[in-house]
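Listing 4. Sequential folding, example run.
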Amino acid sequence: MRKKEIIAYEEKLSKGPFTDEIKTTPFEDSFSDEEWEFFLKLLKKRNDTMPDSIDPDKILVG
């Protein structure tokens, strides 16, 4: 498994630029099932460390 490469790739993705485009990259297409599981766990871990989204009803304006 290419753990170091996948970790570096996930870190690069997390820095942006961000897009809503839905397709896999050639690197992602080369993942084995085990590598996909590892990559998804990294994404989930990063997502879990992000703050919850803002509740629009609690935004202060002024």
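-- end of first protein; second protein begins --
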Amino acid sequence: MAPLIPAALQRIQHQLCASNCPYGDIFMVPNRGRSIEVPDFDDPGESRMVAQLKAATCDLCDAEGDRSAPKPQCVASCPHEAASRVTGPELLQLVTNRSGRAGESNLL
């Protein structure tokens, strides 16, 4: 049996983006076909399976509803630059550039 607490903590941490979004545009939805085992706090020592959640966002419009904005409002308003929208090739380029630099973080 897999460790229960790390999965439960991971599930909680992933929901922080949704609860902290100032626009209410990020919400958690079940990731179909995926579930995780978590402690059953009503029955100590037991566990239960719950749907794994994933973050879903709005339709990428900005606050005025103009899709021609340089970036989505959720990305523009994130104070920690934790949200971003990139294409697959852009992500690959970011990872390639960052992984080749000694002494720098490999985080995006």
